[in-house]
Amino acid sequence: MTPPKMIRPACYWMLTRRTLNRQFLLRPDEWVRGLFDYALARACDKTKVELVGGVVMSTHYHLIVYDPLGEVPRFARLLDELVARAGNAQRERRDYFWESKGLKYTQLLTPEAVEQELVYAMTNPQKDGLVARSSAWPGWLSRVGTLGTTRVVQRPKLVFIREESTLPESFELRLSVPKTHGEMTAAAFRARIAKAMEKREGKLDAAREGMPYLGVAKVLGCEPTATPTKEEELVSPIPSATVGAVERAGELLEAYRAVVNGFRALYRSAYRALHRGAPFCFPWGTYHWSVFGNLPTATAPQSG
Predict the structure, then answer these.
(1) Do 205 and 122 reside in the same domain of the chain?
(2) Are residues 138 and 115 in the same domain?
(3) More confident position, 240 or 124
(4) 1 lies in some domain
(5) pTM of the full predicted structure?
(6) Domain count for the chain
(7) Is residue 52 part of a domain?
(8) Mapped to the 3 state alphabet, what secondary structure does the chain carry?
(9) What is the mean pLDDT of the chain?
(10) Are residues 97 and 240 in the same domain?
């Protein structure tokens, strides 16, 4: 049995999903930007998940989100389904669009972790040696100036999304200032992230030791069905967590693992009881069985 995801409300996540065989299906064409604008805004509107920022690379995406209601799996399903259907139609293909392992969930346990993964995502094009500065990336990217802002995005005109589509014509796409940062204004948050990005960009430049970047023209010239020549470390679909550079990092991760291990033990027990025909109750945080199976699931413990 694959280890289950513990989905509880009021959590920050970094979501990562890769295309089938790491093909360049998300090559940063203009229509891909418009599709993600709309798909993200629609998924946020329907689930109340709040988008902080992220990036869409040619082979994968990284998104940092806040999930107030415990609906992040539904958010991801709405996003991935629309992108896959529209993307396949636009690329004139009929195969799977996303890799079969599914989405990678990384829970962000501290404000430092939220910042760290946001900066990681926003500097990904430079890290991968594609552009000298990530602000030059032609794909979907939460640039510093867009953090904490709201704009209206229109329904894209694509092969899959015709004029007579029943999809709403527009949605508001909002990039939220994380609640982990208290009363920080959007301007202050942007300044903080800009400083962190400048520091990371300098380190990335130094690490390349003068090697040239691929450049936008060559990125856009790649065939969508081609794949990177560089091997990449396999990404496990099993949920994990990060805390960032904090003094209590080890302690926080140990506490998180204890909670997750306890959740999984209760889940396994309920799952086995279900198949034996014995009384059972899945633990709080079980998503699939409670939403799609309408099976008994424990409620959140009362605080105080």
Answers:
(1) yes
(2) yes
(3) 124
(4) no
(5) 0.94
(6) 2
(7) yes
(8) CCCCCCCCCCEEEEEEEEEHHHCCCCCCCHHHHHHHHHHHHHHHHHHCCEEEEEEECCCEEEEEEEECCCCHHHHHHHHHHHHHHHHHHHHCCCCCCECCCCCEEEEECCHHHHHHHHHHHHCHHHHCCCCCCHHHCCCCECCHHHCCCEEEEECCCCCCCCCCCCCCCEEEEEECCCHHHCCCCHHHHHHHHHHHHHHHHHHHHHHHCCCCCCCHHHHHHCCCCCCCCCCCCCCCCCCEEECCCCCCHHHHHHHHHHHHHHHHHHHHHHHHHHHHCCCCCECCCCCHHHHCCCCCECCCCCCC
(9) 93
(10) yes
**Type of residue numbered 236:** S
pLDDT of residue 153: 97
Query: pLDDT tens for residues 119-165?
Result: 999 999 999 999 999 999 999 999 999 999 999 999 999 999 887 78
At CB < 8 A and 24+ separation, what contacts does 229-236 make?
Answer: 232/22, 235/16, 235/18, 235/101, 235/104, 236/101, 236/104
Which range of residues forms the domain containing residue 73? 11-246
What's 177's domain CATH number? 3.30.70.1290
Per-residue pLDDT at 58 = 98
pLDDT tens readout for residues 15-54: 999 999 999 999 999 999 999 999 999 999 999 999 999 9
Distance of CA 130 to the CA centre of its chain: 21
pLDDT for 96-108, tens place per residue? 999 998 899 999 9
Q: Is residue 301 part of a domain?
A: no
Identify whether residues 202 and 72 lie together within a single domain.
yes
Contact 61, 51 (CB under 8 A): no
